[in-house]
Amino acid sequence: MTILVTGATGLVGERLVPRLVEAGEDCRVLVRAGKAAPAGVEAVEGDLFDPASLADAVAGVSTILHLAAVFRTADTDLIWKSNLEGTRSLIAAVQADAPDARFVMASTSNVYNKNSPQPGRETDAVAPDEAYPASKVAAEKALRESRLNWAVVRFPFVYGDGDGHLEMLPKHLSAFGFHPANRMSTIHHRDIATAMKLALAGAFDGRIVNIADEAPTTIYELVQLVGHTMAPSFEPMQNPWHLHIDGALARTLGFQPTVRTVYQAEQEGIL
């Protein structure tokens, strides 16, 4: 079984691919010209912006793990081009050259509405305003309508393995208007691999699935974990379920996080 991974050098892919290789998976990665590939994988040069270059990448694969995405930029045109048009190009290549392959796409819990009356659920109607989650919703729709064997895995705040993501959180407190009591769902890189193992086995086929650990944690606590402070507040909190997702479906499909909370990650030294 050959797995094609896009975004192999990104935040998630850089930590997932070595775990796949360690587990004995035969991995192929899509890389742009001149870019280095992770150890232990087959590298195929190509670009999601160049549909003709994708035929070799998808030929003979049994599964596509589509992790490539753009979000850390103010260039909304690039976000839409990468996340929607790039996904459409990859879908078309799979339809043409690997129509029986399983197509697993990573998405985001940011698609859920900020004023949701409950933790975000896979069945919720979503219509985000920001370019990144809106482009991911559009890409999800394109995949669901592709007639391929598909799965969409929505991740919340990803952290761990020294990726620096959690350490960046204090810088964004004012920009995002967080209340200190807001609880945010999280997932460790180790359990992205746990979830993807299930996806590779077909447990998520034909579904959108939220993946999260067992304990959404307050912004106040998360900031403290990385050595910063946040002003406390007893003011009423707006949008109390923002960034908090419901992971019940994943549990029924066999997902059990091995890093159950951020505090376990701290104790194990894997933040």
Describe the protein:
This protein has helices spanning 13-22, 55-58, 76-97, 131-144, 165-168, 173-176, 189-200, 219-225, 248-252, 262-268, and strands at residues 2-6, 26-31, 42-45, 63-66, 102-108, 149-155, 157-159, 183-184, 186-188, 208-210, 217-218. The protein has one domain (2-159, 187-212, 246-257): NAD(P)-binding Rossmann-like Domain (Rossmann fold), CATH 3.40.50.720. The protein is built from 10 helices and 11 strands. With 271 residues, the protein is α/β, with parallel strands linked by helices. The model has no long low-confidence stretch (mean pLDDT 96). The protein starts with a strand and ends with a helix. The strands form 3 sheets. Strands 3-2-1-4-5-6-10 form a 7-stranded parallel beta sheet, with helices on both faces. A two-stranded parallel sheet has the order 7-9. α1 (13-22) links the parallel β1 (2-6) and β2 (26-31). The protein is globular.
List keywords for this structure.
Rossmann fold, 33% helix, 11 strands, 10 helices, seven-stranded parallel beta sheet, 271 residues, alpha/beta
CATH architecture: 3-Layer(aba) Sandwich
Distance between the termini: 32 Å
CATH superfamily: NAD(P)-binding Rossmann-like Domain
The CATH first-level class comes to: Alpha Beta
User: Approximately what portion of the residues adopt beta-strand conformation?
Assistant: 15-25%
Q: What's the average pLDDT? A: 96
Counting structural domains, the number is 1
CATH topology: Rossmann fold
Q: Tell me about the largest β-sheet.
A: 7 strands, parallel
Shape: globular
Low-confidence stretches: none
Question: What percentage of residues falls in helices of 4 or more residues?
Answer: 25-40%
